[in-house]
Fold each of these.
Amino acid sequence: MQIDLVNRPSATAAIVRMSRGERFVAEPGAMIAMSTRFSLDTDTRGGGLMGGIKRMFSGESFFQNTFVAQDDGQELVLAPTLPGDVEILPLRGGRLLVQRGAWMGSGDGVTTKTTNQGLTVGLFGGQGLFWIECTGEGPVLVATFGAISAVDIDGEFIVDTSHVVAHEDTLQLAVTKANDSLLGSFVGGEGLALRVTGRGRMWLQSHNPTDFGRTLDPLLPARKG
Amino acid sequence: MRSEIAGKPSFAHIKLAMEPGETVRAEAGAMVSRSPQIRPRATFNGGFFTALLLRIFGGESLFVNWFTAEAPGELVLTQPAPGDVLELDLKGNELCLTEGSLIAATAGVDIGVAWAGFASWIGGEGLFRLTVSGRGKVWLGGFGALVAIDVHSPLTIDTGHLVAYEPTISLRTRMSGGIFTSLAGGEGLVMEATGPGRVWLQTRNLDAFAGWISPYLPG
């Protein structure tokens, strides 16, 4: 299996090149084109009813699609709904935590499940209560509004709450003031931030959908009803 | 300070490698991430009255953040809209900015407001304009790509596309054609820039985008 990312970073699509028997799991709606020799399984991937329901809490779909290549040289083209970037996060037996809604697909060797990062990060961390935990081995595709870049953290790092895409579980997240003073944090427009400690890799998105929404909202014409 | 604009042109953002003692002033909410040794401080946007003036007439935030490096570290800044970022070096010269285009500036840059006139107001660019002057770097953002045009003979610009211009440029607002063309042709009012001088335009317009997306939004 080989994955190429094209048209980065504003209109990124992932081309997954697969050989006979290889399997790739994707978010429903992510497939925009594929070769003719694929079979498609739609199920909760062993999670059963509860697995599907829990996945809905993390902003994902109840079902997942598994694309199985029936022949060599098959291509599966995946793309998110948003204008923005896609990144391939390689998983080699570790554990990745992915922002709610960012997961777009993963290799068959990757198990996804819904998890949380504690109540404080859940309530004030800006990414919702639930995260997607990826374990196993294989590629994980994430998609976001904005360009994605990786940061290797060793020690301490501060990130705005709405910019985290994913991180290795060797990093710990805690909610902190963005500024030295609480008043400064809020009047400075940064509010709360995440203090990241430990050693590992984190992926960030360059843009923040909430800020874009706030900018756009006053410009929207008034609508009826 | 080393700076890099990554993600050009559609998701441009600013990566700054800062040395001890260097300071950057950024708009409220612009920070993506920082090393812990880069300390933020929120202040009024240049004193209480200036801040009020900038807020009311320049469309600026009341407060701004100052990021100062205590040790070498990285600061990442961005803008709300997807688009390009332009880095400009001020060497004692002045630039005029339209509302919302300023993202950040280094400590030696002065920010103020100046009277822009009724033509600017009718053209949707405000009665006052934001000015940056002094010495240092300024980062501007726009929706879409940013295009620089050197104006020799008068240039017509659609309202909502002007991001920045040199003070030697004078602006006036006029109808795009006759009454019928202006109302029915979809261009309405336009601005006319007379030089010589340089203008920077954004290739997309947030107002127009809001109008386009509105019928697709549920509720």
Amino acid sequence: MLELSGLFQWIHAVASGLFSSLGLSEIFLDIFLMTLAGAAIIVFLALMALFLIWWERKVAAHFQDRLGPMMTGWHGWLQTIADAIKLLQKEDIVVANADRPVHFWAPVVAFASCFMVYAVIPFGKGALAADLNIGILYILAITTFTVISIVMAGWASNNKYALLGGMRSASQVISYEVPLTLSLMGAVLMAGTLSMGQFVEAQGPYIWKWYIWPQFLGFAIYLTASTAELNRTPFDLPEAEQELVAGFNIEYSGMKFAMFFLAEFLNMFTVGAVATTIFLGGWQPPFPALSFIPSWLWFLGKSLFIVFLIMWFKWTYPRVRVDHLLGFAWKVLLPLSFVNLILTAIAVQIF
Amino acid sequence: MSEMIDNVPLTEEEFLLNMGPQHPSTHGVLRLVLKMRGEFIEDVIPHIGYLHRSIEKIAENRTYAQFMPYTDRIDYCASMPCNLAWALTVEKLAGIEAPPRAQYLRVIMTELNRIASHLIYLGVMSLDLGAFTPFLYAFREREMILDLFEMTCGQRLTYNYMRIGGVARDIPPDFASKCREFTRIFRKRVDDYEAILTNNPIFLTRTKNIGVLPIKVGLEYGASGPTIRGSGHNWDIRKAEPYSSYDKFNFSVPLGKNGDVWDRYIVRVQEMRESCNIVDQALDGLPEGEIKAKVPGLFKPPAGEVVMRIEAPRGEMGYYVVADGTTKPYRVKIRTASFGNLQVLRYLSRGYKIADLVAIFGSLDVVLPEVDR
Amino acid sequence: MGYFKEIASGIYNLLLGLKTTAKYLPRPAVTLQYPKEKMPMFERSRGIVVLLSDPETGELNCTACMLCAKACPVAAITITQAKDPVTNKRYPKTFEVNNLICCFCGLCEEACNFDAIKLAGKYEFATSDKQSLVFDLAKLQELGRDVKYEKKRKAVARKPAAKAEPKEKTAAAVPDPEPQAPDSAAGSGDTV
């Protein structure tokens, strides 16, 4: 019905007609369409970031028996825009003796790397920008950019506490990369491919064929490791206010701080999108009978559900201490993800 | 801040870290100077006095009745026990006894305030550890208690409810039903807090075997209340030296086993439950009668000195009053629980990291107005 | 074995925590959106100090007996007394309550024998001008016009002319109830 594939075919037809009438060759058409796709994704994600920040505040408030922002627009939906305007007009303070180029580029790296992942995520039926046959590998590689931006931010602030916080955060993210990757490998074994588009195809049309049921352990490990990657409670010691070492972004103000903040929320959505594609069947409805609801709506719904789970964890659990955090990653999550992988490998061979 | 502590210069690997007066997790204005070796804390020096208001000196210029609002502000998280201690001290000095109804009302109010104070502890402790939600749940329950107080005496934090010889006003007619409603709801809510925190593996790793306080050390430093009961020392003034009809109620005193942060937490949670029981019993057995004994307008207690102590939510609270036969005391000395409890911090936090320091300090339940007066 | 048991019990308790917070998600909020929705104050709420007037005649009940000024622990009340030569009734010529000092303890209300002073449930007095928080007689009376009160205390008949009556008495601080004897080193009449 309201499928995105119809819209894309229409755009392709119009554009190719336009370009051929202007006498330009194919390659310009391709470049134009790719730029358009990139721009569309960026716009969508920017709006999604604004929405997610508002949603987090509302979800947190409702867990706590209160209402959250109510004054700016209907139930405060303009609050994020108001906050963004406020941050835009703040003075951009750079600490004395800070490493200026690094200081400038750290939030850019963090923010830009969020968008790069979405080239391979299937938003709906026929709405996959680039169906790389190494999709998962590409995603895991790009999400590691976060570490670089954290280390850059910690270094550039010329502040020993920011540096310590940055180092701690970097060690946390690196430690949790391993169980994250391994937990996804179980699903990769089952699907037999690294390509995201084929992952969705492989998880047949019914809800009981989704990979979450056989890979429940993998899903749980993925969710836990992602929460640690995102530096969210219960793993947000590097950015906790109550501790002295207040994290890598203490010296950032104004829009640069907003970039880190938005990057965290976009990464949350990335985690949701990847989990949806790999474990929850992507853009497919649970039963084919429900396919009158467009596929991108299913995708959004499932991703936002995962995001809601991550928010739920944040507002329920206390914080884990840094040595426990690393111990947890190496002593609990890693063995469990190995167990998951071995069992999956055996099961795939047998069945 | 010179590079010396106790006149011992720092070695090369040590450095001083200042958790300044304004900090989210020092509950109040307290300055902690930490001597750190890398990640580990070697020594903690608290610098107090930022909230000193000379209450003891002011007492020398106010009559005994006029001093009551000042006692509210000694510990504003638990005003009723501070009021009660002052009333009991002056009554002991002058040989007055409050009528039975007044004593039961005092018990109800004090126990409700104990619950309110422990709710603050619960909320702030979990906030320090990173769990943001129990803080709001605790304050939601606290709203119910504060409504009860506002119904009775008109204020929500600094009550000025006790008077020398009794209480200021009688409870309104709908107090009993609302109070019973509160205790009924509250018992279930405490189960909720326990579900979120008590056996949560994250909470356990943050609090078990952290900050173990041996009883002997605690007593030497003057710790009291749940801080020392968490280590297993069975001393509760409500049982040991009962005042204001506490001997008529049936309640138990929870004790901890190891004396770590978790034990102090669980002692306070169980104390909240026990306080609910006491409030219910007091409401059931509330006698009729006067709410205030006759005290002359120009109240001049006989000259002498008196010491009286009670079990405040944070520990032992007491007054030492020297009277000289006039309407104003000659000297008032206030012994507060948080002063002793804060001293234990230095012993407890050696060898731990800053994250643990936050947990330990939260578990001592120190409020700075009590420390500085 | 204990390793797996620990993991299992950990997972169970984590899920229990999630269930507890989820229980409150669908419940309505317990907060009020303040400027639009205000909490109704209780009858005994102690807010600002007001002066009460007789509901029929509109006259102040206060006779400037200074008991409230003496009872106030922080000396926030300043009164000067005058006597109406016609009716021989005492009334306050000036009555000032310094709300910057008042601690809302209610001791003045308790001390009054004439139902003249009360702590009403009003609390919205934020202003950017400090001096406007010192309320004078007119303002106090105006604030007290719509405050309902019960005539709980009967006016105590004052003993007629036992002492010489000075035309004006001023109580500005915490005075000694007894005459200025060098009794205590605690000092007297210290203004807070």
